[in-house]
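Key idea: predict the complex, not the pieces.
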Amino acid sequence: MNTILEVKDLSVQFRTEEGSFHAIEHVSFSVQEQKTLAIVGESGSGKSVTSLAIMQLIAENGNITGGEIFIDGQDILKLSRKQVQHSILGKKISMIFQEPMTALNPVIRIGEQITESILEHQQVSKQEARKIALDTLKQVGIPSPEQRMKQYPHQLSGGMRQRVMIAMGLVTKPKIMIADEPTTALDVTIEAQILNLLEELKRTYKTSILFVTHDLNIVADIADDVLVMYCGEVIEKGPVVDIFEHPRHPYTKGLLATMPSLDQDEKVLPTIKGSVPNISKRPQGCHFHPRCEHATDQCRTTKPQTYQVGLQTVQCFLYAPKKESSNA
Amino acid sequence: MHDTPLLVVENLNKHFLLHKALKQENAVYVKAVNNVSFSVKEGETLGIVGESGCGKSTLGRTLIKLLEPTSGTVFFEGKNISTYGKHELRILRERMQYIFQDPYSSMNPKMTIRDIVSEPLENFRKDMSSSEREERVAELLQLVGLSREAMTRYPHEFSGGQRQRIVIARGIALNPRLLICDESVSALDVSVQAQIINLLQELKQKLSLTYLFISHDLRVVKFISDRIMVLYLGEVMEIAPSSALFENPRHPYTQSLIGSISKGDPRSRAERHILEGEIPNPMNAPKGCPFSSRCPVVMERCHSEKPQLQSVGNDHVAACLRLTQTISQRTGDTV
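Result:
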């Protein structure tokens, strides 16, 4: 199976008044053809920075300090900005954001915004572009698309706007779509509709999806593989069923346990003590150690390597191969 | 839990005037809360769920009179508070407190935590000496899991979860009977959300509080509530004990809502149920049943006839004409 997106050892740094900090460090993963990889993490985990770095949308005070990003076999960090913008972004990879109202231009009609991205990337006439736009809007389930084309974003509901965003991401038939919390701002019934739509489109358009979310329930519903991030690092990754049934990292375990269950009647929810540290105050060693029940002196000083456990990889000393002296 | 109701709401309405007109009947209103009736027993947690625009926050705000109700009566501790004036309302504030979604915007960033938490004491416990107040603040902070050292610090020095703890400390400072929590854990990260939910449960036990818990998150509501009320376009669709609502939802909207939640299990994916369509604009809500435009089992009469809440089980009511039909068929009554 072909790898569509491969990220190797990616690090991103931000300069702030308080100094320079790494938002993400040594992030590596790959997305296969027609697969969905979910990046899951809490606020400050670096999940959005990772996706923005791939799209070359890092804010001005940030820069990629190391690593490689291969899209369809090409290392986009080695290409010029012009090349990337012309032949990669929007064409081979597109992005859907959380808040479609801020991602759409409020003073331009929907139709014009969609045809713009078609004309940018395809050698077609305006009429043809219009037709593609109409077809795509139909495909994402927008009723009476002819009329919607003439409307402005504010005239659409949140769910409809997100459908328009998805249509815009799809018109160029990208190899992979990045969806950054695309349903977080939506109601639960609309969320179910949009997730269903993405699943359907993935099949018809044969695209891969990189899905960024904080919601483990969504991950359970849509992902093939899962990447768990904490404090800018990948702490665990693996196939979705393995992650849900046998989470390895104490953080992943804690995260899964804190979800209120629909079937069981618990009296007290399991919790993870403490909260995610600020980027400027990330602890030494394993970033998770102050919140971890299993933390040892080693965790407080040394960063764990990544260990393979079955189909999963875990960044935690609990899974280090046992040496003769390491008795717990 | 006692059987005496702490809060009884009867036919509460909050209508917002959208367009004035020369003739009263031509004016356009948004009926954010429409004929809502329910009661909350002492020591109970009533969850209020619904999608955006269903009126759950307007309801909460109307109850504590941040918004003036258009009509209807609210009884609190047996007294009709709908007619209360400014002075009486002030006394009421001691007994009823509100916890908002965003803890940062509900605290003054220029005040220390000591000042924030002791403000209600300064206002309502004038006989307290400053050292007594200090002690009480420390005690409150401890109750919500913060240390005494927090007192001299400012809101921005705390994480979201800690800020919500501070807001809760302020909320319980005067020993209220009823806490209205409006999406109080929605802005928090999952790992922190669980901490705050546990804290609310713990405080409820310790201080024998009663909660109105407003949220869009059905998982959280199920976890925390004894009973749940489902709202749609400002109207009550169903009220039932938490377990009954999830095991045997009777209203098609409740069924769809529960069906659309993810099971959180990668092995049971296909079971997610899709409810078509979107919440209609409340300005032109459907006539008859508000859910009629999206209902999968809609009938002809649903478009014109408004269903009434009726008993469908123990402590379980729902408003759906299909239920009226089956019940009347069963009992042989004519409707």
